[in-house]
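**User:**
Everyone, produce one record:

**Assistant:**
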Amino acid sequence: MYIYTINKIPNSAVAASISVNEDGGYPLVNLALDFNRDEKYGPYTTKNGKTQEEWVLKNVPAYLLADKINNYEFNVVDPEIYSLSNVFGQLLLTEDKQYEEWQVLIDESYRKILFRTKQVELSERLGLNVPGIGPDLYRGSASFGEMVSNIFTGNSDAEGRVWNFDSIFDVPDHTQNAMECAPTVMADSLLALIGSRIGVGGLPEKDEMISKLRKTLKYGDDGREGVLKRNFITGANEFMRQHELPIVTNKIDNPNIVNIKEMIEDGRIVMAELSHYYYNNGDPIHETSHLVVVTGISVLDDKYYIRGKDPATPEGIETWQLSISDMKLSYPKWQKGDTYITRLYTQNWISAAEAVAIGLLPLGSEEVMYPMEMLRIGGAYYPRYQFTRKPADEFCSSSYYDSDNLVVGLKYKGRRDLVQLESEGGCGFGETDRLPTEVLELSWYQQQLLTLSIDDQQ
């Protein structure tokens, strides 16, 4: 359990870190923590006269995959919690919402967990005490929040059930160094995007990549620690030119949840800008901004959530609730005011010809070979980025590859003959540990043919 501090003073934000040994799909998470150690798991009155809840997570949608960490944040009001070295908790994972008091729920199937506490200092990482902080600078001081709109209501299950949507990308979650949210998020984005299609061979290692991105993003421009917003897209494009990557970066200002859903559906990496405000005599003051990667969305009845990777926090998938009317996030670590999602950045592959046209690739790139990671199914080769990795479920005992669309592949190596394949349900196209992968060197024509044919199926 992480206790977040600023200048070594707890700021009331706490995160419970949960992992599972096998794919758990999309349960609802309910967690109670025995802060006062009375074994009752109910609200109690603190010494300062406030009420501390112990049922800290109530019907929160999750996306649980084996060996993946989920971090859930909440606020506490009892200062004695900060001095605890460990806390016992009861974890309940269900498909349906829980309405009763926790004492009634303990008769259900639950897991008893001992959480050890660890303090995480944010001030240096976020640059809160360093001169030059401002709304036009990315340093890192929030995670990303939640959002969804009423367009999802029709896709929700019956009352008490959850609707989920996740990116096809397995995004890393590296913890940033002091004030390095922008290069860290960009590195994680590119590692996911490139790794899904051609593998990361030939790319710099993570630390070297972040160092190179610091330079192309002009970290420290104008003598201010951090990355200025004006340098984000130009710096991304410069990195692509240096490494001859046909990947384009775009932005969407004042986004809504529909933008996020459409960008994820379109197979793009989505990064969200979080803007932190405090109030001076009722007037909102934009103090600083931060970047995170958005990886998924959940809707439960009339509540909306978003998932993602936040470089400012320890490793793990973060989940928060969002007010979709104004894109305001529930973000416990920011205690001075409110947090809003104010901009999206997206990254996606484009054709070599498009990349040449906008200056990301040099002239003549159409003649070079393009490595692409393939799944081999029935002797044919299918680009892996078409597939979604699904967790084990009632139809398949282990994780598997699936797709809602026809997938397109090459019938033979070195030729342009295409084949199509449709999922048959059950374990989809096959269990992930049984389908071999291989990186093929494709000509520009093969790459173009595959890309256009795959786009036609979306």
